[in-house]
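B., you asked whether I could sanity-check this one before it goes into the benchmark set. Here's the sequence:
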Amino acid sequence: MNKSFAVIGLGRFGRSVAIELSKLGAEVMVIDNDEEKINHVADYVTCAMNIDVRDHEALKNSGISNMDAVIVAMSESLEPSIMSVITAKDLGVPKVLAKAKDTVSGEILSKVGADTILYPEKESGRRISRRLMSNDFLDYFELSDTVSLVELMPKEEWVGKSLRSLDLRKNYRINVVAIKENEDVRVVMDPDEPLKPGCPLLCTIKAVDLKKLVGR
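And here's what the prediction gave me:
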């Protein structure tokens, strides 16, 4: 089943997150009160809605309660962000992420219920989208426009099996370059050693293959 997200606020950051999530196969709802911004992204997402987020009832009736996560991507004015976070949490959204322009704004949004605070000057919309799409991703780094390094927790079905038997290069098109165990990073790996739970893998993967990895 595809993951579903709502992105509230379609500035440069919100638009980037929404489009990237859609490219990765997610169902994406976008919300903004600017018709022009809505029109620019409508063709890339599942649903685009023109709503003033300060209208509690309109936001409540938008369907965000059905989302796996809501990304509040506004930061110019704090009031609409606060109201969006509060409404999303009141509706039982499992995870609410909120963009903040500084640490003070971040602390306020955290206090009203945001689970994660995003600082776009530190993290790109693309990187955040990759992490949202896979609960297994611990971190994500772009090595180039086409290749990324992913820190990945082994999937449950991988634990107890060896790299040789899993053949991750063939089945997922990823190349395991190291295994982390406690504070050690092992780059010389026994292909027949069973993978252990809680020991992340460092893998390289092409951007075109990310959708296959997060969708399985």
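One thing to flag: The mean pLDDT is 88. Otherwise nothing jumped out at me.
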